[in-house]
Amino acid sequence: MEVVILPSLDDAGELAAARVARLVGAKPDAVLGLATGSSPLPLYRALRRRVEQGLDLSRVRGFALDEYVGLAREDERSYAATIDREVVRPLGLDPARVRVPDGAAADLPAAAQEYERAIAAAGGIDLQILGIGSVGHVGFNEPGSSLASRTRVKTLTERTREDNARFFGPGEEPPAHCLTQGLGTILDARALVLFAGGEAKAAAVAAAVEGAVSSSCPASIIQLHPAVTVYLDEPAAGRLAHAEYYRYAYEHKPAWQRD
Ligand code: F6R
Fold first, then answer.
1. Is residue 44 classed as helix, strand or coil in its secondary structure?
2. Which of 36, 48, 120, 235 is the most buried (most CB within 10 A)?
3. Domains defined for the chain, CATH in brackets
4. pLDDT grade, residue 25 (50/70/90)?
5. Closest Cα to atom 15, ligand 1: which residue?
6. What is the number of the ligand 1 atom nearest to the C-alpha of 141?
C-alpha cells in the first residue's frame, strides 16, 4: 500500500488524473470503478481539465460503486443521476458504457447478480476509485460486512444517513437501503485508489490503513490488496502512527516505481 499525504485533495486529484490518463493511453476502453460523494471530486475536476486539453475518455467503461434503493434513476439525488452529472457528461464518457446498480429494480438480488455478471463480462475493473465513510465503509459496505461480499442490498447505518443528509433537502432523509458492490467485488479490481480529506475521516483512515483487517472497519480490506494508493490531506492523515515513514517513502520514490 502506498500512502500519499498531500497539502490538499486537489493535489491528489492531479496525481490520480495523470494515472488515469496513463491507463487510458495504454487501454482506451479501460474499466473504471466510480465512487460518488465529495472525496473523488478533485479527481473528476482534474480529469475534466485534461479532457478540455484533448484527453479522450469516450471509450472508457465505468461501474458505479453503489446506489440508493428506491430512488428513480431520474431523481437528482440518485447515484445514477449524480454519476451522469459529475462524471459522464463533464468527462465526455459514453452513457451506454457506464453502469450504476439498479436500485429501482423490482428484484434487487437479481439486479445485484446481474451487476456482478456485467463487471465480469467487461473483464473486471482496472482502477477502482474509492472514498471512505466516517464509519469506515467503502462503497456502502457498512461495519459488519462480509470481507468476501459481492454486490447486494445493505442497510445504511444511521451515521451514514446523517453524513449523506447534506445531499437531501430539509426534512428529507436518505433511503435506508442501498445496492453496493461488495468488499470481495472491490478486492477483485486490479488497482484501488482511495481519497480521504478532513479530520472527520482521520479515525476511519487510521483504522483502515493501520488497524486490524476486520469487518468492523470494512475499508481495512485495502490491506489485502496488492495495488492500493491512499491519497490523504494532512487532517485526514492526522491519526496515522507511521505518517513520517509514508512521507519519507513518497519523497524518495524511485522513478521506476511509478504506477
Ligand atoms: C460513494 C461511496 C461512499 C463514499 C463515502 C465517502 O459512492 O461509495 O463510500 O465514498 O461515503 O463519502 P464522501 O466522499 O462524500 O465523504
1. helix
2. 36
3. 2-257 (3.40.50.1360)
4. very high
5. 37
6. 9
- How many whole angstroms separate alpha carbon 206 and alpha carbon 21? 29
Alpha-carbon 216 to chain mean position? 19
Looking at residue 256, its pLDDT comes to 87
Residue with cell 516505481: 257
Backbone phi and psi for residue 4, each to the nearest 5 degrees, phi listed first: -115, 115
Query: What DSSP letter does each residue of 163-218 carry, written as one string?
Result: HHGGGS-TT----SEEEE--HHHHHHSS-EEEEE-SGGGHHHHHHHHHS--BTTBG
Which one, of 231, 225, 172, lies nearest residue 201 by Cα?
Answer: 231
Q: Which residues line ligand 1 (CB under 6 A)?
A: 35-39, 65-66, 131-133, 137-140
What mean pLDDT do residues 90-118 have?
98
- Which residues, 6+ apart, have CB-to-CB distance to 253 below 8 Å? none
Q: What CA–CA distance (Å, rounded) separates 100 from 138?
A: 16
Tally the residues of the chain.
Answer: 259
pTM: predicted TM-score of the whole model, two decimal places: 0.97
Residue ranges of alpha helices (H) inside the chain are 9-26, 41-52, 79-83, 89-91, 108-121, 158-164, 183-188, 202-210, 243-251
Per-residue confidence (pLDDT) for residue 258, from 0 to 100:
75
Question: What is the dihedral sign for C-alpha 54, 197, 184, 68?
Answer: negative
Write the residue with the smallest CA distance to atom 11 of ligand 1.
133
